[in-house]
Specification:
By secondary structure, the chain is α/β, with parallel strands linked by helices. The chain has 9 helices and 9 strands. It has a single domain, classed as TIM Barrel (Alpha-Beta Barrel), CATH 3.20.20.70.
Length: 207
């Protein structure tokens, strides 16, 4: 567990790589390339059999802050915490998962796409959210409209965002960072390319 809040984690870099990993042996070189490129916050999505072991392996990389994404329920939350996750990201927010995450004390970034989701999170004492899926949920106009009534809320838009569009999101006052899978392209692991993509992403400026 980390002593950082979710807000502090979101502030570490403008982009959080969203990682789908199939081979545990790729975990350390991938994490090393991302950290070397200036992106220390790594979201390992629990979409593959290798994910939890990869998360544990990445924690050995100096400077990496490693969390679990695609956490759907309390059982997955428990498995992620057991594997050493330092923060939790979910695609949506249910009462069961929200209550379990808050009770665990782990930094938690729940997915929200509408006002009801945000209000449910605020009822749990949360005010940092993933806006997901960002592009198909209405993009920047939708987030601007949603953020209006919730002055203290801050967001990490994720889903359909690319290097070219990330600056538009990061220019918003309510956006702390964005999530992106473009930094870790599919296919055979290519650490030099990942480091170069991470360096580009890390250089993006925020509002």
């Amino acid at each position: 567990m980390t002593d950082k809040s979710i807000d502090q984690i979101m502030a570490l870099a403008p982009v959080i790589p969203v990682i789908v990993i199939d081979r545990v042996e790729d975990a350390v070189p991938m994490a090393e390339a991302l950290v070397a490129g200036g992106l220390p916050v790594l979201e390992v999505t629990l979409r593959t059999p290798a994910a939890l072991d990869a998360l544990t392996a990445m924690k050995a990389v100096k400077g990496a802050v490693v969390g679990a994404g695609t956490v759907l329920n309390p059982a997955m939350l428990g498995a992620a915490i057991h594997a050493g996750a330092e923060f939790i990201v979910s695609p949506g927010l249910t009462d069961n998962l929200g209550q379990a995450a808050v009770a665990s004390g782990i930094p938690f970034l729940p997915g929200t796409a509408n006002a009801g989701d945000i209000m449910r999170g605020m009822d749990l004492g949360l005010d940092r959210f993933k806006f997901f899926p960002a592009m198909t949920s209405g993009g920047i106009p939708a987030l601007k409209a949603l953020a209006g009534p919730f002055g203290q809320a801050r967001f990490c838009p994720t889903g359909g965002i690319a290097l070219a569009t990330a600056p538009d999101w990061l220019a918003l006052e309510t956006v702390r960072c964005v999530g992106g899978s473009w930094v870790v392209p599919a296919g055979p692991l290519d650490p030099p390319r990942i480091e170069a993509l991470a360096r580009e992403a890390a250089a993006l400026s925020r509002h």
